[in-house]
Amino acid sequence: MTSANNRRILVLEDDEQDFRILERHLESLRLPSYSLVRAESVEAARLAIADNEFDAALVDYRLSNGESGIDFIRELGGREAAFPSIIMTGLESSALDAEALLTGAYDYVDKLAITRDLVDRSIRFAIKSHEYEKRLRDAVAEAKEQASINSNILSIVSHEMRSPISSIVGYCDFLIKQASSDTTQDAAKKMKAASVHLEDFLRNLSEFVRLDSGAAKLSKSMFSTLEMLEETIAFFQPYAQHKGIALCLHADDSVDANFVGDRLRIRQVLINLLKNAVTYSDGGRISVSATIKENRLCVSVNDQGVGISDDRVAAILAEDIKPQAPGITLDGGLGLGLSIVRRLLLLMKGRFSLESAEGFGTTAGFEVPLERCALNNSNAA
Questions:
Q1: Is the same domain home to 229 and 363?
Q2: Is pLDDT above 80 for 148?
Q3: Is there a single domain that holds both residue 191 and residue 265?
Q4: Do 284 and 303 have their domain in common?
Q5: Which string of DSSP letters, residue by residue, matches 65-119?
Q6: Is the pTM of this model over 0.85?
């Protein structure tokens, strides 16, 4: 590109008189020095661009041969072109002004009111704005590339660690069965609990990467909602009992049926909510309630744990999930579990609800649409 004090400007203008007026205005400036390259048609402008590097372009709105300056700016790439464009016209129209800016022009100059300072200021503004926008686009592209690299690293780490962790869980089960004393068995159970926690975190991490990159897809199948709920509750029973928590399921008759939906992801939502409930409760009761309303599975998890402050609840519902101060944290302070819950429900066109008060427990709920299975209707008949 040329220097800041010597600017090369493409002028797409087929009117000789208008070009000379513009040329005289810019020649009267000491600095910067403007070197104008005139093109009388769009084709001539294309050839000029092939042979020169330009800092900006002044483009007539409508040429006498019917060609459109707006279309030419659009052809260049609008605001993402190699240089900024400014529309010139003798027509006075606010609609034309808006059209020019929406197309990607940086400014709009009225030929009938043109002055040296007006043109100079417009060119300077366009060049500076274009430079800032290019830096911003480059920064965004770099950030996206870095995010992609980070996502790939997280995916690889998560994948490579899951197999060893699963093996550790298996060996823990073996040690629990073979333990010769209560002390050894208790140690093996604690080791398994820690391994399962890490395994769950890695599963969440993988899901988060997929959701964040837009790669997550729904996988629908027929399943029993009641069996899915009972299996998930059973998975948490040992950990709840270890903390002296009574964990129970209350499901009405509508739940005891087959539906079509993404069973694994619905279960993952429930796992994350139950995990928070068990983690932040010491004794008391955790109740899971479930029903089907208008082909929507409605589940709530109520605990008698430490609860969440009002401002934290508001932040979670506003999806402003950030690490908390030391003390009460969610999922190790990362907010990863609830973030995944929100994203999974969004993917499944579901809803999330949260009610809590510090010291009085929490009720977290969700709804997800399901498709009624034809098998239910044939059984009913």
A1: yes
A2: no
A3: no
A4: yes
A5: TS-BHHHHHHHHTGGGSSS-EEEEES---HHHHHHHHHHT-SEEEEGGG--HHHH
A6: no
